[in-house]
Specification:
This protein has 305 residues and is α+β, with helices and mostly antiparallel strands. It has 2 domains: 84 residues, no CATH class; 142 residues, Lamin Tail domain (Immunoglobulin-like, Sandwich), CATH 2.60.40.1260. The chain is 16% helix and 19% strand. The longest helix has 32 residues. The N and C termini lie far apart (83 Å). The relative contact order is 0.10.
Length: 305
């Protein structure tokens, strides 16, 4: 073991205390939030009655720190000790993968090569960032409302559509494709950010995100490129090559003419065929959004009959 003078001892001790705080504070913050929702938690360090994976302090943290304090000098600014990256040694969730390779080191169900489970997360840390691959089936997300012909001009700026999560588990639509049918003029928009659709809840996708420029609609995601035809078009939700839902509306084929308002799926038809014009109607009067169009974006649909 190296011998250190007293002032060197104090200097290194201060440095390592800083490193220790950098390691512990995120766990403390996480557990503080957990305490507010978990009344069964025992009020002593590192003990809980729930199955949560976060913790406050583990003495393995001290062991890692002590080992490198005795052998090397540490730099708290970049979390390195004698050339060793503490992130490479520190495994917050104890799933066997350190922080520098684990894409979510707060969740033991997330690590490189992990099996996908229905939790709305990219469990296996693959480069494409997809969540719940192979576990989402057609009908889990359904299209429930489309505004394709606003009273405003240019009307494409005011276009949007609404989806509903028919399952009991939140679904993350990141990496999904929003598209129409394949052709030389095909429109495709990729969902590049997290869009979490809550269980039995809605999400709204808009051509323009800002409520100041889309008629006052509160949106969950701006898709930008995709546009809808004013009399006929198709909207297809594609996840990992699988069509999860699609609506092909055509005013000349029995679909309602939704002018100055949305095309509204009757709530009783949410679990039926939503590509059937008989299950849709114009959004009923009395449900105006700020620009005067009749619609219910992000809220329960109105009965058609």
């Amino acid at each position: 073991m190296k011998k250190h003078s007293f002032h060197v001892f104090i200097e290194r001790l201060s440095t390592h205390l800083i490193v220790l705080l950098l390691m512990i504070i995120p766990a403390l913050a996480t557990n503080a939030g957990q305490d507010r929702i978990n009344s069964g938690r025992i009020g002593s360090v590192g003990i809980a009655t729930s199955n949560e994976t976060t913790r406050i302090v583990d003495f393995r943290d001290f062991a890692i720190l002590a080992r490198y304090w005795l052998e090397t000098e540490c730099n708290a600014a970049n979390n390195f000790c004698g050339g060793a990256d503490l992130d490479h040694l520190y495994d917050v969730d104890y799933d066997g993968y350190p922080s520098d390779v684990d894409c979510d080191d707060r969740d033991p169900n997330v690590f490189p090569g992990a099996p996908e489970i229905r939790d709305g997360k990219d469990n296996n840390c693959d480069p494409d960032g997809k969540s719940d691959e192979g576990l989402i089936i057609p009908g889990d997300i359904i299209i429930t409302e489309i505004l394709y012909d606003s009273s405003e001009v240019p009307d494409e700026r005011f276009e949007w559509f609404e989806v509903f999560n028919s399952t009991d588990i939140a679904i993350n639509m990141r990496t999904w494709l929003l598209r129409d049918q394949s052709s030389s003029m095909q429109d495709i928009a990729v969902v590049n950010d997290d869009v979490i659709v809550p269980p039995k809840g809605f999400a709204v996708f808009c051509h323009t995100l800002s409520a100041n420029f889309n008629g006052g609609v509160v949106c969950d995601y701006e898709y930008g490129h995709l546009t809808f035809g004013n009399s006929a078009d198709e909207l297809i939700l594609d996840f990992d090559g699988l069509v999860i839902d699609e609506v092909w509306y055509d005013e000349e084929a029995g679909w309602p003419r939704a002018t100055s308002g949305s095309l509204n799926l009757d709530p009783d038809a949410f679990l039926l065929d939503n590509n059937d014009p008989n299950n849709w109607c114009n959004s009923p009067q009395g449900h105006e959004i700020p620009n005067g169009d009749e619609a219910t974006p992000g809220a329960a649909n109105v009965d058609c009959w």
